[in-house]
Write a structure and sequence with these properties.
CATH architecture of the largest domain in chain A: Orthogonal Bundle
CATH superfamily of the largest domain in chain A: RNA polymerase sigma factor, region 2, helix turn helix motif
Order of helices and strands of chain B: HHHHH
CATH topology of the largest domain in chain A: Rna Polymerase Sigma Factor, Chain: A
Radius of gyration of chain A: 27 Å
Structural class of chain B: mainly alpha
Strand content of chain B: under 5%
Distance between the termini of chain B: 56 Å
Oligomer: heterodimer
CATH class of the largest domain in chain A: Mainly Alpha
Number of domains of chain A: 3
Largest interface: A-B, 64 and 47 residues
């Protein structure tokens, strides 16, 4: 690849990513290359598009999940770019301009495959369903985990389940790292629409990929064996039954230090007991608050049967 | 936007979740942006929401990993497009 890969910080979300340089030419050079390409210099044109081939392919593949279709998109994009180069007004926008052509090509292929594909997907949508899960125990997954088959498959399954409208926004912003205004420009929609779709896509992706982040990523240890082993280890410390019996005393700090240490060790590994502990704590917090509890309006005045 | 912030300059978890993307993109008004920042610092659930989103973005946002994965799982040969390029060059 002609452009150097430099680690950058993804703007806004502070994710360190290896980002392809958006502009592989020095600013004063790109216009000369574009001009020469416009005049029909195929070498210049080739110099212009070559650095973007891979990023076009990644975009097309992640939208279509088909190698043949992705290749077709890249080829068509190159041909159309060559044909319509005179329509490019600002040389610095070249990458975005190419991406506009590629997105349109990808949309056309998607339309061919399905009877009706809507790229206007802003129906009412309830974000609540994505906000109630417990995400606190997510593990770190290194980004090169994407190279592992099961992760790769999961990411693509998740992306395919996004609506086409959300998917293209997600790919352009979070895979290709265009900024929100650039994405709006590429897709010819306004920035608010971009950010609504992006938000949906991110929540949905995170939700769908949750299993990857929860389970240990070590396929060579059979899951069943590992589960058995950890169950044995936990029970050696103290049984779930005992933990649950002692949970109130534990919360009140009334258990002896030895048992306390064993319970804490148990809680580290046993998700069920931890859940019981957390919910009990929350209930205690709720009922033991020194604020006066005022009953909700609807039950005011209702007699409490004795 | 004003109604999302209480008089004491606080926001609810609901608002944080709704505006998380805009917050991460830095697209909110200054008072809301900093109110959410303060909220996330003190709220475990909301900071977990943001952390997990970051982890997901970190996974899908690495271009080099994408290229390697594509080569490993999709393209059995290195990018076929170089042939097309040569072909186009001749046109």
């Amino acid at each position: 690849m002609a452009s150097a890969n430099t680690p950058t910080i993804c703007q806004g979300c502070e994710v360190t990513v290896l980002k392809q340089e958006a502009d592989p030419f020095p600013p004063e050079e790109i216009m000369t290359v574009v001009e020469r390409a416009k005049e029909g210099d195929v070498d210049a044109f080739w110099r212009l598009v070559e650095p973007f081939q891979q990023c076009l392919y990644v975009t097309a593949y992640s939208m279509l999940r088909n190698a043949g279709d992705a290749e077709e998109v890249v080829q068509e994009t190159m041909l159309k770019a060559l044909k319509h180069l005179d329509q490019l007004k600002d040389g610095h926008r070249f990458r975005g301009w190419l991406m506009t052509i590629a997105t349109n090509e990808a949309r056309m292929i998607m339309r061919k495959g399905m009877k009706e594909v809507s790229f206007e997907d802003d129906a009412e949508w309830d974000p609540k369903i994505f906000s109630l899960r417990d995400y606190a125990d997510w593990k770190d997954v290194p980004s090169d985990a994407l190279e592992r088959k099961e992760v790769w498959e999961a990411v693509h399954r998740a992306m395919q389940s996004l609506s086409p409208a959300c998917r293209e926004v997600f790919v352009l912003r979070d895979v290709q790292h265009f900024t929100v205004p650039e994405v709006a420009d590429i897709l010819a929609i306004n920035e608010d629409k971009v950010s609504v779709r992006l938000h949906r896509a991110r929540l949905q992706m995170r939700d769908l990929l949750a299993p990857l982040f929860r389970e240990p990523l070590s396929p060579w240890i059979p899951m069943k064996m590992m589960a058995d082993m950890s169950a044995i280890m936990i029970h050696r410390l103290v049984s779930c039954k005992k933990v649950l019996r002692e949970i109130s005393s534990y919360i009140d700090g009334e258990v002896n230090p030895d048992l306390r240490a064993r319970i804490e060790e148990h809680l580290k590994y046993c998700r069920r007991c931890k859940l019981v502990l957390n919910t009990t704590r929350k209930i205690l917090y709720l009922v033991a608050d020194d604020k006066v509890l005022i009953p909700p309006f609807a039950i005011k005045g209702r007699q409490i049967p004795h | 936007m004003g109604r999302d912030i209480s008089r004491s300059g606080k926001v609810k978890c609901k608002t944080v979740i709704r505006e998380l993307t805009n917050y991460m993109e830095g697209r909110l008004s200054e008072p809301l942006q900093s109110a959410i920042e303060d909220h996330i610092k003190s709220c475990r659930d909301c900071s977990a929401q943001m952390e997990t989103t970051r982890k997901m973005l970190h996974l899908v946002g690495d271009e080099q990993a994408w290229l390697n994965a594509l080569e490993r799982h999709v393209l059995k040969k290195p990018a076929a497009t170089s042939e097309d390029a040569a072909h186009k060059k001749e046109l």
